[in-house]
Design a protein that fits this description.
10 helices, six-stranded antiparallel sheet, 228 residues, 6 strands, alpha+beta, BirA Bifunctional Protein, domain 2, globular
Length: 228
């Protein structure tokens, strides 16, 4: 049984958009976007928002059409060689309540034909934020190890993202967790196929993903001095 949030029609629309990434086609198919992508995903955001306080009361589900948890379909092409006006994926990001003021971790769902994944953590933080996370690992290595080696977390997630080639300035090159201290991103990712995302219980699966990653998210959140 398929979900009323994420459907095969959502992925079909995104495939069609990739093949016709221009304003004329999009305007002619805007109702499809609204009915097959935007409105169902706003429903997902709203319904997951009822569950989010069980994980953290300081992360938010914002079901507004613009400026909320759903990423805009429109690309910012000002500094890009690729002038395609539309994104060919849908993204949902549940951010910390302080996200407008500082770079924070988030719970993320990525929906793209052939590339569906759940991502937890913080991507490309600024140097100050990154330094706080590194210091938290140095100050409490036992807790960091417990978080990243938790059996359920390791079974579900893989830590990904960019890393420095050399140890960051100010950190011991022989530190036992130097590979983690080299990280420029602290992202945990787990992948799904389109059929799984379209299942009626996928919102339950996404909730399970968030619960499993909660200790990881809590470590990152507290390390940058934000309430969990």
């Amino acid at each position: 049984m398929t979900s009323h949030y994420i459907t095969p029609e959502l992925f079909t629309f995104l495939r069609d958009l990739k093949a016709n990434n221009n304003r004329e086609w999009f305007e002619a198919n805007k109702k499809r976007y609204e009915q097959q992508v935007r409105e169902p995903l706003l429903g997902f955001i709203s319904d997951f928002g009822m569950r989010l306080p069980e994980i953290s009361r300081h992360y938010e589900a914002d079901a507004r059409k613009s400026g909320g948890s759903l990423f805009r379909i429109y690309r910012d092409v000002r500094f890009s060689k690729d002038k395609s006006p539309y994104k060919t994926q849908a993204g949902i990001h549940f951010r910390h309540e302080m996200a407008k003021d500082v770079h924070t971790p988030g719970f993320y769902l990525h929906l793209e034909p052939g590339n569906v994944f759940v991502g937890m953590g913080i991507w490309h933080p600024d140097n100050k934020t990154l330094g706080k996370i590194r210091d938290a690992i140095v100050d409490d290595p036992e807790r960091w190890v417990a978080v990243k080696t938790d059996a359920a977390f390791r079974q579900m997630y893989e830590l990904q993202g960019d890393s420095l080639k050399r140890p960051p300035k100010g950190y011991d090159a022989d530190h036992p967790h130097i590979d983690d201290l080299k990280r420029k991103d602290f992202i945990a990712v787990t992948h799904y196929n389109e059929a799984a995302a379209c299942q009626l219980d996928f919102i339950d699966e996404f909730t399970r993903c968030c619960h499993t990653a909660a200790p990881f998210m809590e470590f990152l959140t507290r390390s940058i001095e934000l309430p969990w």
